[in-house]
Amino acid sequence: MKFTTFLTSTAAALSLGTAAMADDPTTVGFVYVGPVGDGGWTYEHNVGRLAVEEHFGDAVETVFVESVPEGADSVRVMQQMALNGADLIFTTSFGYMDPTIEVASQFPDVKFEHATGYKLADNVSNYSARFYEGRAVQGHIAGSMTESNVVGYIGSFPIPEVIRGINAAYIHAQRVNPDVEFKVVWVYTWFDPAKEAEAANVLIEQGADVILQHTDSTAPQAAAQAAGNVITFGQASDMSEFGPHPRVSSIIDNWSPYYIARTQAVIDGTWESTSTWDGIGAGMVGIGEISDAVPADVKAEAEAMRDALASGEYHAFTGPINKQDGSVWLAEGETADDGTLAGMNFYVEGITGDIPQ
Amino acid sequence: MDFSAINPAVLLASLMVAATPILLAAIGELVVERAGVLNLGVEGMMITGAVAGFIVASATGSAWLGFIGAAFGGAILALLFGLLTQFFLSNQVATGLGLTLFGLGLSALMGQGYLGVKAPDFASLNVPFLSDIPFLGRVLFQHDAMVYIGLALVAGTYWMLKYSRAGLILRAVGENHEAAHALGYNVVRVRLLAILFGGACAGLGGAYLSLVRVPTYAEGLTAGAGWIALAIVVFASWKPWRLLLGAYLFGGVTVLQLNLQAVGLSIPVEILSMSPYLVTILVLVIMSAGRAPGSLGKSFHASS
Q: Nearest-CA residue of chain A relative to B271?
């Protein structure tokens, strides 16, 4: 991977070099963890980048480097971008957090934005999306529709983001279906279609008739389709090619408005270091069309929940909720604070199994 | 914990499916290495086969034509490697690594416009009567045709290497290319044919992922399967039946660890996740007594 990184960063450097010779437009750089063609996470960030180009036309140049490993290589890529005149750099994976802070201190005039992290500096903002809101809606549909009462969940890595999603989905599945059971399988990858397919098959063989996933490929959808009576949800992108069944809805990442707004702030000179954590309401999380395979009443309830989450009148983590060991986490009517959510490392009551440490 | 949730027949059946892409790629590489050529470009040929097969299949609507296209795609990329290493005598290791990088880039380029498209169906065969046998029917006789083609390739390769004249020549070229040349065999031609065969097999393995296993195309679809295939060839000590065992072992432990997680076994998940690699390496190292073909990785030129 290092050699490809070298090639891509050289290519980016060259394109930046030529860009700098033009009429000095604002240059926005993007550092991607995967290939832009992954159909999921990086794909959606790149959609956001293209939206920036579309919105600003010649006033903004964008550059990107894809498949950048989360380590020393990412430092070099960011330095190269900054040296070549980038005004604003988005780094789009959790593992870039410390490299971003490090490079930002070397280039105080360049603005940095780190996705899904929590560290800040004068010229570093962070931003993330409240995907758990979308997972609450999925959980509601999953709990309502399962007949075997077994919901399979393909987990990527045991980090707060993923655990939050499992909890949000479970809480809302369990509220409509007290007998529901979650089976979680960890695959230790964000993207490995063959392994995701195997994980989905295993869960289906063990009785799951709903598959939720926190990985990026459509392989689980295909496995569900082959099984016939299993429903799934699109992840990161809509995955509507598998609709109306088995894919009955989806959570969509929508970074375009944020990227456009932040680029505008740099152009206007109003950019400030902030922490952004937006959900359905701000449009950062989209709920894909709920298909006709979902019964009309369930669909209406799910849409009502989506709208309540968007308007802020309902919070996806509203008590009473106990932790897995039975201790009280949230009292009746209490909602979770962002600090606890950001670092969530426990299951809620009712989920069996341990979180890998 | 309820182990009865794991159905052994289903487990065995799914390990055969999980192992097939690696098996196809590995059997091709085994022939290449027995001819004395080390082609590290398996991953690149696999992903090229995956995208070529997907393009052909979605254009024609036939998965079978897709597999043929994948074999050609892999072979064409392998031909590039063959020309560079056999005629221009480039370093095989460097060329193979370059081939992987090239294949990954080429497939990303070719795959533009095929993201999110579904592959045409490739139905499982239910072998009449045999598939109704309890247990064995489910394990052995309810697969798609490529699983059987993979097995047939292993058997055919075994027979070819051990009993046929062509296999004897191929092995001679791999063991000592100077001697084979002195006997009048065309070393370069034999090696080119082996390289083409290896590319075609790797292409089939990649297409099995994009057309059957997943079945859709995405960048980076093979996710390192080509490297596992390479490792299995070495650890199988260049013997076809051990290669089959290695691939099934790897596929089996992969599927088993996911099953164990789903029933809630209290072994740390990290250990379960690395277990396929560990077990495969361990068993094959314990078994391996073979040695590499004598001319493996060495360039040959008739004048030298």
A: A356
